[in-house]
Design a protein that fits this description.
Length: 298
């Protein structure tokens, strides 16, 4: 992320989907917490939509952006709201890459439009250069006292997720719930009896503890609950999301556009989670520069 740590930039992809104003409101609340700025960028429109707008001589983009500005002001009237100076319908992915490279967080809608994902969720996930927050369809009212949940699999992807989760939790004054699942070792035949089960459980608990040690030491005031269990990651995270305000997972960067590769567990989580899901790239910077570390605002 390349935003100003003192005034983090929270980018919102604005399209015509039903959930777009929810994403704007969430971004405005986040900006109020961290003393940040909301920046609105119109979603890339399909070729047919651009042609129709030209033929009819009008576009809904201006009206949608105006509604987004009003939604942000209603939630947090004192936060600055910026508009992207370029139409994403013209430049598409390249604009989103440039905008997100200068942002600290990107917020998109995960609601369904019929049987198709919101137009923002796909292109944003593949082009973003900063952590992405997806508001799932089942996302309801959020309790600011609830913890931040993070999925830990022991890889570099979850290292970035752990860093980001602690930063969010520290900024909110809440606990972190770190979840590590290891059903694969059971299905691989490593556990044949009670002794084997106890050995694997102890080894996996150590993996979790070691993976949290550095970041937990950086944030000594953040209370940490550790959950290491023989289960499936998606099911555990979905269940915990119903009692959390955020769930943070890792992803892998791939190719020059920095694509986000989220595995099947991550996709299932985004569809069913009860709170926003944050996807942290492997290349996420140190927690000191992330959204969530700022002071509480109005």
């Amino acid at each position: 992320m390349a935003g100003d740590p003192a005034h983090p930039t929270i980018l919102v992809v604005v399209d015509h989907s039903r959930g777009v104003l929810d994403t704007v409101r969430w971004a405005a609340r986040e900006a109020a917490i961290c003393g940040g700025v909301v920046r609105l960028v119109p979603a890339h429109r399909a070729l047919l939509g651009r042609l129709l707008a030209r033929l009819l001589g009008r576009s809904r983009t201006a009206a949608v952006l105006a509604a987004a500005v009003r939604a942000a002001a209603a939630v947090a009237p004192r936060i600055p709201v910026e508009l992207s100076g370029t139409d994403a319908g013209t430049h598409g992915r390249s604009l989103l890459v440039a905008e997100s490279a200068a942002a600290d967080l990107l917020v998109v809608s995960g609601r369904w439009w019929g049987r198709v994902w919101s137009l923002s969720a796909g292109p944003a996930r593949w082009a973003a250069r900063c952590p992405v927050v997806v508001l799932p369809p089942a996302c309801g009212g959020l309790d600011p006292t609830r913890p931040v949940v993070v999925g830990v699999d022991g890889t570099a992807a979850s290292t970035a997720a752990v860093d980001l989760a602690f930063a969010f939790a520290a900024g909110r004054g809440v606990a972190v719930v770190a979840v590590h699942t290891w059903w694969d070792r059971i299905t691989d035949g490593e556990v044949e009896d009670q002794t084997g089960w106890a050995r694997v459980a102890a080894e996996e608990q150590m993996v979790l503890d070691e993976h949290l040690a550095r970041t937990a030491a950086t944030y000594p005031a953040v209370v940490v609950q550790r959950i290491s269990c023989a289960g499936f990651a998606a099911g555990a995270l979905v269940e915990l999301s119903r009692r959390a305000q955020l769930v943070v997972i890792g992803s892998h960067r791939h190719g020059r556009l920095g694509a986000y590769l989220v595995d099947s567990a991550g996709r299932a989580l985004v569809r069913a989670a009860g709170c926003p899901v944050v996807i942290a790239p492997v290349a996420a910077p140190r927690p000191a520069t992330t959204v969530g570390t700022g002071g509480r605002g109005g």
